[in-house]
Description:
The complex is a heterodimer of chains A (651) and B (100). Chain A is an all-alpha fold and 651 residues long. Chain A has helices at residues 5-8, 10-35, 41-68, 99-122, 129-148, 152-170, 177-211, 222-227, 236-250, 259-262, 268-277, 282-289, 291-294, 298-319, 325-345, 349-376, 394-408, 414-429, 432-457, 472-487, 502-506, 522-549, 551-560, 562-569, 574-623, 630-650; strands at residues 81-85, 90-93. Chain B is 78% helix and 0% strand. Chain B has three helices and no strands. Classes of the chains: A mainly alpha (651), B mainly alpha (100). The A-B interface holds A 622-631, 634-635, 638 and B 19, 22-26, 31, 92-93, 95-100.
Amino acid sequence: xxxxxxxxxxxxxxxxxxxxxxxxxxxxxxxxxxxxxxxxxxxxxxxxxxxxxxxxxxxxxxxxxxxxxxxxxxxxxxxxxxxxxxxxxxxxxxxxxxxxxxxxxxxxxxxxxxxxxxxxxxxxxxxxxxxxxxxxxxxxxxxxxxxxxxxxxxxxxxxxxxxxxxxxxxxxxxxxxxxxxxxxxxxxxxxxxxxxxxxxxxxxxxxxxxxxxxxxxxxxxxxxxxxxxxxxxxxxxxxxxxxxxxxxxxxxxxxxxxxxxxxxxxxxxxxxxxxxxxxxxxxxxxxxxxxxxxxxxxxxxxxxxxxxxxxxxxxxxxxxxxxxxxxxxxxxxxxxxxxxxxxxxxxxxxxxxxxxxxxxxxxxxxxxxxxxxxxxxxxxxxxxxxxxxxxxxxxxxxxxxxxxxxxxxxxxxxxxxxxxxxxxxxxxxxxxxxxxxxxxxxxxxxxxxxxxxxxxxxxxxxxxxxxxxxxxxxxxxxxxxxxxxxxxxxxxxxxxxxxxxxxxxxxxxxxxxxxxxxxxxxxxxxxxxxxxxxxxxxxxxxxxxxxxxxxxxxxxxxxxxxxxxxxxxxxxxxxxxxxxxxxxxxxxxxxxxxxxxxxxxxxxxxxxxxxxxxxxxxxxxxxxxxxxxxxxxxxxxxxxxxxxxxxxxxx
Amino acid sequence: xxxxxxxxxxxxxxxxxxxxxxxxxxxxxxxxxxxxxxxxxxxxxxxxxxxxxxxxxxxxxxxxxxxxxxxxxxxxxxxxxxxxxxxxxxxxxxxxxxxx
Lengths: 651, 100
């Protein structure tokens, strides 16, 4: 479908540009480190922002090519090189762009570019400015690898790469040991999930190698798996669960969600880009990508839905009590990711991806606003020391308000359409309790977001320092994202409201389910929409009146339910439980057994020092014979001689 | 009548005296002479056996041993002189640098 050979390699350029940016910025960072002082930020800014923007433009081109080609077409560029070539398996380093990839590409490069621009203001003057942009560009490269690869291995490389960048960026200020620890936590928790992911890949290979007679060895390609999915009928549940373990790690679901709130130790643009808009949605992307496998495994889908729902509920309840502006947003992210898994679990990958897109807009905007607030208040993150910022930083406040309304699901902003589609699917395709919990969580979402908004922007300012002036480089991306949060939902206006639900049709290929039956539910859909909008408005109003008008009520409430409040505000003691069950025994085992026992006692004691001691003692004994007296040597010589002669005579 | 056994016995006695001297004496010159004694003991045995068997091999080797003993004596004495010059002693018990 591509005319010239040059153009056919275009998709590789999309990922290539950020990689180029990474290389240049790394060189600059090394140069700065060599000179022991930062140089001019201008080049870093230019390189760091230009290449993501170029990647965005190329993504737009790819998108429009795909949009104008007949339905079911996929941009499949020639392989860049053959990566693995063995008798059992061949893997090409190859990209593929289908509507799902194109959607994700636009989100990643678009939101990514905006956050890159924002960071020029936020990170201004930081010692590691060039290093920061190097990591950020590298992240973009790996993320694009993750979404654009046409087989599981390229996906896996991107998957590990974004994990690495996440680790590097959470611990960006690594001189602070607490922050470095948060980075480690994220990395280690993700490893647990990645182990499941790897097992999934191995299971796919095993299934093919044991059953397939085909001579085609490209069996890690998505298209290949999709064509031969009947081979997986018996293994599908196990494989799907293994992949879900990976997704739960990357996308912060129960039981592996604990790293995401701690990931807020990184610079705020990183939280916006990696830990809200893009990387954490990789798990949703992966399951949507392999949805044909999940459709064979209803049990796995049930698990996905239940885990998603529980995570959404748990995280939303924790978000109610947090006092750190970024922590509230982090738990909100976990909760929204739970919604996306719920959507996947109830058979609506389109709705999940739709929510990924809208969530990227409003959550990135919220995080950038939080970044602006933190920047303006001289790195104050505690919302108890904020308040009344609406007049002081109006652009940020307005954007925050728009995004809050969007995430709360109040029509007609972005979050309303995507969340409502998920809830509608849950209503029609899952047990009623799923819908009830989902509905409850949407109220909680609205409540904690308006609580946050009220505490930060309304009322009286409770801090001491005069807010900073915010540069245009920070305000502009926020404004753009706010506009996207305002109108982003219109790509998926459901038919009942006179739209055509374009994104759902665009991604229809993801699932085999026929969408005709929805027509029958139009009346129900309208009623549900009405109820959930009203519910969001009511809870928003509750938060508003509780925290602005009657703050003493919150205190009374807190005292009345002291135990419950403690339980929730301490995050259900999950970190403590994990610490007790996994971390401490493991540390104990490493310390007492592997270090003191194995390493020090056996390897060092017995092996290294033991052999040294034996040879020392032996040599002491033997060296006695070397008396230095000539006569003694002669005696031994003669004794030896006699011995030899005796031996010769007898033998 | 003096038989070859008598010569061999004398040779053994001389060799034994040489070894004994080597082991118990401390003076380097004496040790040196003990070595010469051992060499001569072996010469005696060689010549006696050569006579006994009526062959010339033993005589030839005895001459070789004498030649080597002469050159060895020259070298050895030179070493002893040098050692004495540098250390002012030729008592072997004063040198224990080989002690382990």
